[in-house]
Amino acid sequence: METAKKKVKIGKRKRTTYLYGYLFIAPTVIGVMVLNLWSVIQSFYYSFNEVKGFAAPKFIGLANYARLFGDAEIWRSIGNTFLYSLITVPLGVLLSLVVAVLLNAKIKGKGVFRCIYFLPVVSAPAAVALVWKWLYNKDYGLINEMLSAIGIGRIDWLGKPSMALISVAIVGIWTMVGYNMVILIAGLQDIPKGLYEAAEIDGAGPFAKFFKITLPMVSPTLFFVSVTTIISSLQVFDLIYMMMKPSSPAFKSVESIVYLFYRYTFTSYNKGYGSAIVVLLFVIILFITFIQMKLQKKWVHYND
Amino acid sequence: MKMYKKVIAALMTGTMAVSLAACGGTGNTGSTSAASASSSKASASDKSSGEKANLKMIFWDSNQEPGLVAMAEGFMKQNPDINVSVETIPWDEYWTKLQAAATGGDMPDVVVMHPDQVKNYAEGNMLMDLSDVLAGDTANASHFPDYVVNDFTIDGKQYGVPKDLGIIGLFYNKDLFDKAGVAYPTNDWTWDDLMSAAEKLTNKDNDVYGFAAPNEGQNFYWNLIWQNGGDVFNKDKSVCTFDSPETIEAMKYAVSFVEKGYSPTPADFANLTQDEYFESGKCAMITTGSWMLTEYLAVEGLNFDIAEMPMQKVKATECSGMAFSVAANTKYPEAAKKLVEYLGSEEAQLIEAKSGVAIPAYENTAQPWVDSFTTINAAPLVAGAEYGHTSPGLTTSNEASAILDDIMPQVFSLEMPVEEGCKAIAEGVNALIQ
Questions:
Q1: At B213, which CATH number?
Q2: How far is residue B366's CA from residue B235's CA, in Å, rounded to a whole number?
Q3: What is the pTM of this model?
Q4: Complex prediction ipTM
Q5: Which has the least CB within 10 A, B225, B320, B333, B367?
Q6: Residue A243 forms contact with B (CB below 8 Å)
Q7: Chains A and B: how many Cβ contacts under 8 Å?
Q8: A74 touching B (Cβ < 8 Å)
Q9: pLDDT over 80 (residue B29)
Q10: Is a pLDDT exceeding 80 seen at residue B177?
């Protein structure tokens, strides 16, 4: 980051440096342009058209959006998605921070624990969802076996409408902790040791050190983690797709906005309406992220 | 420091929000994160000649792959200049992938087509007109049941060479029947027989249910509706008749298994599928399709047999045929046509029959299929072809299925009265098609 700010004195050298810079980022930028940006533009375009089956897009103005606002299913799935975010984000980020702080301390077997917490990240989501589905099984699942052993009754994790979203959220938290933990550990290691030494000389206890030094110093990383976690939680799809079936009575209390997008676009062959749904989600994410960017002044401390 | 983090955050936000929308657009980047496709390829004969046509064929059932590979090999033996590879894409992602491939102009040369899906592809000009193949000698349309050929005929053009028939029958666990001292189902069972057997077989102490009554059309309630003289649509498919007295009565009968506790509930099926219930000996009877035979036979200790579907007013069962279709933009139109013509020939369909994975569509080739089983009698399934109904076309390919997905779980969970549910479905579907 320092090199980027450095002023290059010689014009020709500056040009070569720039050229190399662009050359190095070219693969990524071109990839983003081709794979993402073009699709985004097309999604916006499709959302103003009727695109059914393999027929050519037919311009219908705002009809898709008009349908969107009157569609009770959309609002229900937005509600489900927000509820999922409300459960997973605060708990997930808090848990990630706690785990990161603990695994950043001097303890034995740190590497092993870090590996264990990171494992869900490198496991295929489909495999994760399937294993959890077995664990959650009402009659034969390990979780209910354990619960009944300690005297708590069996819970219908996946079949009961009021329970299903929580069950999916638990898996969501479990899979996110590892990734966030690694980023937070990196943030924690950026904190100069001198600060802690000075605080110790002043007689600060472990809690004072955490709240007065660790938390403010790690807040930029924490901010990044919360932003990305909120976005990915609003896009929840794979766990629902793998763990729930549309024929289940609990499905409608879990169906997320991306699932709805998937259903319209890929199983109902209505790409126009599917695109309108995804544009709505895009606007929601943009709005929430914008608010977060504004709010960061209140709690994020940058040390320069 | 500050700038850097801000920029990174903004960039990440941007790409994450955007990469999602990505799959909405082109469909090329199909985003199902489902289990990875198990793909195995039938390798080519290695005689190298100058211009060799390479054809790719896809299908969704891995159980049937050996049979399909055997058919492809039979073709390659006769046509050494054409190479055919077979790939299996699981059902859950088959249509997503095919749609994406077709949109991207990269459709496999030969695909197995479903009657519910063919209309979309035909109207989108994705499929080749195979009328001349079906008019020829080898795979002449007259050798196949009319309704299968008709299912793949859109606006007078024929888009599919019939492959096999999927017929629903009543599968029962012999051990559970013996244990409960109940006589095995016969081919002339009525609804009352089914209900009273389900009652006797249900044993709550042993966790055994008499019958599986899942929220599923093809394997279960469509059949009941037809057996009761009802239908899902009127003759010319312009009105949904889900609210007819016959249909409502049939749905009431279907749901009553759950009501009386003879079948697991939809919440139970969210934990274990109906097939898992049957395979693990927790359900004595299940109505399902001929394609499940290979899977059930592979389950150790599952001692089962098959009877024809029970009847009420008439005998009826779903009998939907699959077909081979050719991509309109295939690089090798002649070779692909040759392949589907062979696949529709008596010779190829006999290979399919002997492999025991599917009831071939070609006339009089079902007996070798029945003979391929030693431990069970598969003849009752074949008998269903005589009184079969094709798929009502209310499944995945249109938005009508969303209406069913919304209402049926409530009906089967006993949260919504059957009559109210049926009327709501008819109303919703009619609003959609009119």
A1: 3.40.190.10
A2: 29
A3: 0.82
A4: 0.77
A5: B367
A6: no
A7: 205
A8: no
A9: no
A10: yes
